[in-house]
Amino acid sequence: MKKESYSLLVSEIGNLLESGRRQAVSAVNAAITQTYWQIGRRIVEFEQRGKLKAKYGSRLLKMLSNDLKQKYGKGFSVDNLERMRRFYTNFKISATLSRKLSWSHYVEILAINDDLEKAFYEKQCFEENWSVRELKRQINSGLIHRLLAGKRQGGILQLSQTGQAIQKPEDIIKDPYVLEFLKLPEPYSEKELEERIIKNLQMFLLELGKGFSFVARQFRINIGKKQFYADLVFYNKTLRCYVLIDLKIKGSHADIGQMNLYLNYFKSKVNSIGDNEPIGIILSRNNENIEIKYALGGISNQIFTSRYMLSLPSPEQLRKVVEM
Question: Which domain range does residue 74 map to?
Fold first, then answer.
């Protein structure tokens, strides 16, 4: 018996076991979610038949909680029964529930007040396969509002129906980007900002969104006898193009010309057959908005300016930043 063949057998069995366990967990999660939906439906139907008013409905949940905990153990607190009730009232058709999302996912989604936002985060969570932790972070960082910054009125309805559909360069841009995971102390340099991003690359890719892969940091650009360096280079497989990110503490009009040079170089020297034109993002904590507006005028390359925040925004902070 060859040692290599036996090692391969062990590896293949291990892969089968891991796949089976993942399927089992997924099946259990789907069964729990459906069960809780059914419990919520039975509570609502009981209330409607008895025409129970709000105060009696509250009394019903307390009675149910006591009896179910005695018979079936934990998991039936008044708060959890209320979540099951709201689960049914918010998602009236069980067939529309995603089998990829667990009850814990739906608990986070149910905490959102706006129905359109609920629909967006459910769809986006399914599409991007977020963990519960990732979902919670995207909600707390106001992802839907950051995607809507600068878009036409009515965009929230489209996002709730389709999620973040990436069809053109503008669709991948957020404003602001939230980088609280860097835990960057004040004051800091642009070099320190870049190093923290590289150390937290997985979280930064999550913040960038679906379809991004990392290519290089400090990508060298040779033009004549001079050398330039693009801070971060990614590739977006959905748009089929390179995405260059220049990191700044304070952005100015001079950054536009530099990014324009980088993009022209990529179009000429780096792009392969089938690649679309590269995209440039100047990511800064503060922008000289008027200077940048004039600097962008007449430039044909796809250059975007966005801000970043180093802490999770409060709803009021997010509203102010998005409206700037």
Answer: 3-101
